[in-house]
Amino acid sequence: MNPFLGVFFHWLGGLASGSFYVPYKGVKKWAWEVYWLVGGFFSWIICPVILASLLTNDLFGVLGKQELGTLWWTYFFGAMWGFGGLTFGLTMRYLGMSLGMGVALGYCAAFGTLIPPIFKTFIPTIPVAETIGQIASTTPGKVTLFGVLVCLIGIAVAAMAGLTKEREMPEAEKKKAIAEFNFTKGILVATFSGIMSACFSFALTAGNPIGEASRAAGTTVLWSGLPKLVVVLLGGFTTNFIWCSFLNLKNRTGYQYFSSTLRNSNPGRGQETIIETAVDVPSEEVVEHAPRTEVASDPRVPMLNNYLFSALAGTTWYFQFFFYTMGETQMGRFGFASWTLHMASIIIFSTMWGWIFHEWKGSSKKAHGLIASGIVMLILSTIIIGVGTWLKSKLTAP
């Protein structure tokens, strides 16, 4: 166990999550539901199966030997995470990337980190190492929980920065950066989306027996979390596939998967609900910041480029949880803190992109100071959690 290596892996995962949408900027003349589903096949089906098959022993044998209950709850919470993402794109529309990600992921961090060990107190059969009481009874546990608290305070500070921006910025300036900025509506949507999207953490917890079985089959500890991702992401794929297919029918965009010619000047990107999750950076909203060069008089669609860029985006998205499971294996009995580390790192990198896209341009020094303070606290929280886990490893070392 190496907690500092674990923190590093979680940061790599946050970087992947905070940057995966960039290749989508190269997609031209496709509707959102088309390029999202194409990328999703790589995110939720192709990459999980291929990498788990290559890096673990007897993937399908391990999955086939699991109890039905383990597979069901891992898949079920993965599907619930997908449902939670149905409203996440709206959070970005109303709050912008840096604030919207901060608030929604704050709920994810709190619920995804603390609820599993809290439930362990009342339901001992849940596959979590320790209850909250057991964690808080030791010095390393107190340090780790303090790191979680610092993370949540940092998120609250980031939310205060957004409220300050709304109060101080002229309406015209807010609309330049975020066309539909609405703090109240955005907070309500972010609350619902963030809490529901924490189900991903529950799915990973429910899938722990799969990781244990993979290790028993001879898989190296570092890769042992990959098999459970196959099941979790299959659940997420189910809800995404259903919604994108519905939008294909509704917007008549299904032909775009196969046709190199656009049938109308509007590729189908309308006002539909955006299905993304609170562990994703908002591809649709961010891509809209970048000018597109689509020409209505030229109906040709760059099919090869669109598939390649979507595949690259989807693969990058998957790597956030590829690195997450690697980091989790290094956190030992404090693996519950992995979710907080992941959320904090995503907020840090998504805020970086928010600054790049000038979402905070025109806001006061107070707002800038608050958002900077929030980010510093998030970085500090990852260090504190790493120290707490390191102290635990020293106490349990032979």
Distance between the termini: 12 Å
Question: What is the number of domains?
Answer: 1
Low-confidence parts? 269-295
Indicate the mean pLDDT: 77
Number of strands: 0
Helix content: over 70%
Radius of gyration: 21 Å
| Morphology | globular
Helix-strand string? HHHHHHHHHHHHHHHHH
Which assembly state applies to the chains in this document?
single chain
Q: What is the number of helical segments per DSSP (H or I, 4+ residues)?
A: 17
Major sheet attributes: none
| Content of β-strand | under 5%
Give the structural class.
mainly alpha
Question: Overview of this structure, please?
Answer:
With 398 residues, the protein is mostly helical. The chain has one domain (3-392). Helix content is 71%, strand content 0%. The chain contains 17 helices and no strands. It has helices at 3-19, 32-55, 59-64, 68-84, 88-95, 97-122, 132-136, 139-168, 171-177, 183-197, 199-206, 208-216, 226-251, 283-287, 303-329, 338-356, 365-396. Helix 1 packs antiparallel against helix 17 (365-396), helix 4 (68-84) packs antiparallel against helix 10 (183-197) and helix 5 (88-95) packs across helix 6 (97-122). The longest helix has 32 residues, at 365-396. The chain is globular, with a radius of gyration of 21 Å. The protein starts with a helix and ends with a helix.
